[in-house]
Amino acid sequence: MKEELELLKASMVSLTPEEGEINMNKPEALKKELTKSLTESMENKLEATKEGWIDIVKKNIKKEAKEKAQKEEALIVHTTIEEEKMRHARRLNVRITGIEEKEGSTPESDGKTLCKILGYKEESPPFIKSWRTGRDPTKKRALILHFPSEDIRSTFLRKRVILRALDGPPIYLDDDLTPMQVAHRRACMPRVHQARKEGKKASYRDGRVIIDGKAIP
Questions:
Q1: C-alpha neighbours within 13 Å on the C-beta side of residue 208
Q2: Is CATH 3.30.70.1820 the right assignment for the domain spanning 92-176?
């Protein structure tokens, strides 16, 4: 308000005596001039304030977008690290489905029974740890066997052809995949099935589609 009054005072000083007399004799004209001056001053201030707020909003939007991008990047890095840890921990495991849990049996006894079927001596099974997935024994739970080395694990997996000749419910030996790997395999399986329909030898192994012995990108 002080600035507006100073502006009005300056404008009145610059008036000629005649102009001053006219304004003094016409208070409505003086009022209109004062109102116009105040209005223009307020509009200029409002416009400047508006532009200032727009700049602040733009800066906040950029800051939020940057923070969001940083959080997403950190999440990706964290997910990748956790995924690699899980894969490393499971690389020596074999996931077995089709072996029913019976009363009095344990993961170790079920594993030894399977190994005996595959030709191993019951007193010296190739695995060093065994457990069932999940916590509810009333549901079908996979049996996990953990092996001391990749060579021993690979030899065990090659013996699964023996299981195809058995009578009764089928027993499957598979890699112990992470949830991310399971989702990837599920997405790739239509391609595997299509290749098999075309008479090609196709499978999903180590995170890749293998067709006629070649990895398909």
A1: 9
A2: yes
Numbers of helices and strands, H then E, in the chain? 6, 7
Question: What's phi and psi for 205, nearest 5 deg?
Answer: -145, 135
CA angle, residues 155, 161, 167, in degrees to nearest 5? 135
Q: For the segment 84-133, what is each residue's pLDDT rounded down to a tens digit?
A: 898 889 999 999 999 989 888 999 999 999 999 999 998 899 999 999 99
- Distance of CA 116 to CAs 110, 142, 176, 202, 203, Å? 10, 19, 21, 30, 27
Encoding tokens for residue 178?
């992470």
d(CA 157, CA 150): 10
Cβ proximity of 97 and 172 under 8 Å: yes
Burial class (CB in 10 A: 0-12, 13-18, 19+), 175: buried
Under a CB-based contact definition with an 8 Å cutoff, are residues 64 and 73 in contact?
no
pLDDT of residue 21: 45
Please give the model's pTM, rounded to 2 decimal places: 0.59
* Residues of the chain scoring pLDDT < 50: 1, 4-5, 7-8, 11-24
- CA max distance for the chain: 124
- For the chain, the structural domain boundaries read 2-86, 92-176, 177-217
